[in-house]
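Database export, one record per block. Field names are fixed; values are copied verbatim from the stored entry.
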Amino acid sequence: MAAKKETGKTERTLFPADVNPVARIAVDNPLPHLDRPFDYLVPSRLGATARPGARVKVRFAGQYLDGFVLERAAESEFTGELAYLDKVVSPEPVLTPETSDLARAVADRYGGTLADVLRLAVPPRHAAIEKEPHEDLPRKRPDRPDPGSWKRYPAGPGFLDAVAGGRPARAAWTALPGDWPDEIARAAATCASADRGAVIVVPDGKDLARVGAALEAIGAGHVTLSADLGPAERYRRWLATLRGETLIVAGTRAAMFAPVRDLGLVVLWDDGDDLHTDPHAPYPNAREVLALRAHRARAAALLGGFARTAELTQLAASGWARPLEGDRPAVRSAAPVVRSAVTEAEFDRDPAAAAARMPVLALRTLRKALADGPVLVQVPRRGYLAVIACVRCRAKARCPACGGPLRLTGANEVPDCRWCGAIAGGWACPDCGAAKVRAVVTGADRTAEELGRAFPGVPVRNSGGSSVLQAVPEQPALVIATPGAEPFASYAAGLLLDGWALLGRPTLRAVEETMRRWMNAAALIRPGGTVLVHADPGQPVVQALIRWDPAGFSARELADRSELGFPPAVRMAAAQGTSDAVASLLSGVDSAYEILGPVPVESPESPEPAADGMLPEEEVRALIRAPRTEGTALARALQAAQAARSLRKEGGGVRVQLDPADLI
């Protein structure tokens, strides 16, 4: 078999490779109806380099597109004439069979395409990094460490023994307050001591730095992967993992696809953090990907945090994972004492305590604790006065230009709009004419200002937004932090302010997310220290925090969702786009599924006109609900509906997301 191929003004004759001349290529093509491998002939000159996993260039629909060689075969089932692949970009086999199969499974679970997942799983190439010299040295196995603080958990040593023995133990971990990075490091080192790989995924760089330090402290060799490294260094470390030079990889979300050889353990910390959900299609969540990866590789899994999500409770209820938690004596010795900032006794002493943002009990507790060290104050919102209202009629202050909410960014600043940024210096209430405003939502900056006046001479440190502190000294200070930005320290006391702002958000996960944020902050308080929560003490979530019972709270949350038909008790997909596009998609979905909507999507910003001056068409969203046992079938149905729209070349894209975290 021979063919002539034009290259510029010349022609040359191509002959297929002698051995396995057919290459099955995963083409980087976004069209859903073309989400399948394509066969190409391998020219003889590329026979040795077009190996499985290599990056290639192919001619596809009149374009030169990137792709990966999935496999080589002796013949093709395609009966027509095959084209030749054009170029081997790199012979480095960057796509392993395990990663390829995992990417296909993730695409099928989330109703996406293989090309979309491969963009997340395999980083862009850096030719200079690939050409750097490297030695194929045997991987260094660390000695198995002692269990350390895993002894606090009745099942802790047994879990480590299972990991060391290569058994697929899977734990729904409810961590006790303490040195959780050390516990993760010991679990990973235990796995590596058996010459098996471990993948550790944490939400952000702050957590990653602590895990990396813990691994170094016990002498466990590892690499860390995060976006902060820069593309070149990150690719260098990813290649080292691919080539088997390390047994332990720790990183943020993208590390869930790290190509560790002989996978023996996956670890996910703080599985409810929204940073674990990728913002790119098909929007995979690290918990689901790591659980799927552990299941396929028959590896152990350690998933959890201080709080517990309904999804993790569902995994435990199904038998896929076993609870790993401390007994009540261990909880009492490790946890702080949590109290409501508004009690009946305090209300009798201070009748204004229920309405005050900073009750007398809180100020008294902070003053006493400052003698022993730093004090943590968690504030839900950044900024100064995040939302303001008319001082007379209490109507929310809105921008005269776009109708967005106004805010104050400082004590002597004029209001500006949170949406369009317009200055509203001459604002007056359109309802009553008053020109003065009052605070509705107080931010961290204003809180720091108020506490600075209440405690003169005490250092005040802010952590949040673009200025997140990694740690603070063990000295008296007031540390004001937004959720997730709390610096590491052994705090003498803590104050969780404005619980209503967290609990009142209009999302399915508002209460669960509030519990997670509160527990992450409270776990930084010394054992026996005091944590005051400023929220209605009658709320079940407040009572669960006081009892330090995240597992019981999560079980109740799962039961409530099961009764109402919400994830994870069911699988639910959200389809968002123009009304015509969503209607077209829904027409291709089996009528056996329950469809809610479509309803208009509320946009927080005013739409921008297009180049022709026309406003974009209003978007709608529909929800498709299916029993959990039919989740895979629902994903396939949505794949097929998207493929049918793509084949018909219908305009207007539809964003499809399964079990979205922001479901209302």
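Remark 1: The first strand starts at residue 3 and ends at 7.
Remark 2: The mean pLDDT is 88.
End of record.
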